[in-house]
Amino acid sequence: MSSAEGLKFTIHPHPNATPAARRAELMADPAFGRVATDHMVVVKYKDGVGWHDAEVLPRGPITLDPSAAVLHYAQEIFEGMKAFRTKDGGAAIFRPEANARRFRASAERMAMPQIPEELFLEAVNQLVRADRDWIPEGENASLYIRPFMFANDAFLGVKPASEYLFMVIASPVGAYFSAGAVTVWVSETYTRAAPGGTGAAKCGGNYAASLLAQAEAKAQGCDQVVFLDAVKHTDVEEMGGMNVFFVFEDGSLVTPPLSGTILPGITRDSVITLAREKGLTVREEAYSIEQWLADARSGRMTEAFACGTAAAISPIGVVKTREGEARIGSGTAAGQITGALRTALVDTQRGRSADAHGWVSQVF
């Protein structure tokens, strides 16, 4: 049973909410994901009962039995989305329906119950309403929203759990990367996902598997890691937490195809749409690391960028491998097309341009 028809949220306002002055201090320059808002949303699921006990609560610790299934078999999924402060002082969320659909797809892949999209959206809206004052102002500022679900059934058998918690928390954030272009390291030791695996699901295990490769990138003086395909170890797939695009001298763009091993990024999809509206050709096709290096060195590739909810669109200035490195464009700043796409994306998110696709959802 998974119906959430008629499910109402019980609101428990925080009795000691953060004072305005302290909140402003915390929001002045928050490290990404380190500052928490006052509330959280919790909705429970149990086989035979369905979704129940939807609550907005003061944010606080949760209690788990030591044999909770998530701790042993990693049944866990999550989403990342942002709310922005609008010109009139309101709040808007970018493409939450797409997050809801992807969350359901991740749940299906991980043998978890699929939360109805309307319940997912209402849970997110409830948290934004409760913590609206935590949405920061500023060009790179937003409220990062983290819906997630995990198995809290207490058992040690290897099977899908029968009980789950769906939760939503939030954090005011600034820019994910510092200003300028990022440097990326191509991992030839580790792979992120393989055909038939969980690469297209937004589950914690994928990110845990990327951490050692990310540490390798940091040791090489790079900001992010780039993964190659798990079969041939030649084709670029995605970065540690972002999709990647390449821009060529004829103005066309290439991005790796969604083959089941790459997360179908919502920002990725938005970029493809915005680029095509600008008359640019976008190809979703395999692209090898050898070709990347050759095209960057020859000048055929003029720009490259990473994209995702956290980073929006960030230019890639240098790509490094064990055999050498190559600079893309100036190596230090966004190129013309990267900059234009970022402006189009951010202006839509913040309500500065017409929302031709109905991507922006107002929270009242």
TrEMBL record:
Which reaction is catalysed here? L-valine + 2-oxoglutarate = 3-methyl-2-oxobutanoate + L-glutamate; L-isoleucine + 2-oxoglutarate = (S)-3-methyl-2-oxopentanoate + L-glutamate; L-leucine + 2-oxoglutarate = 4-methyl-2-oxopentanoate + L-glutamate
Example GO biological process term? L-leucine biosynthetic process
Which GO molecular function annotations are given, in alphabetical order?
A: L-isoleucine-2-oxoglutarate transaminase activity; L-leucine-2-oxoglutarate transaminase activity; L-valine-2-oxoglutarate transaminase activity
Give residues where N6-(pyridoxal phosphate)lysine occurs: 202
UniProt key word Secreted: no
EC number annotated for this UniProt entry: 2.6.1.42
PROSITE patterns given for it? AA_TRANSFER_CLASS_4
Q: Which UniProt keywords apply?
A: Amino-acid biosynthesis, Aminotransferase, Branched-chain amino acid biosynthesis, Pyridoxal phosphate, Transferase
PANTHER family linked to this entry: BRANCHED-CHAIN-AMINO-ACID AMINOTRANSFERASE, SUBGROUP IIII AMINOTRANSFERASE
What is the protein's given name? Branched-chain-amino-acid aminotransferase
Q: Source species, please?
A: Acetobacter nitrogenifigens DSM 23921 = NBRC 105050
Q: Coding gene?
A: ilvE
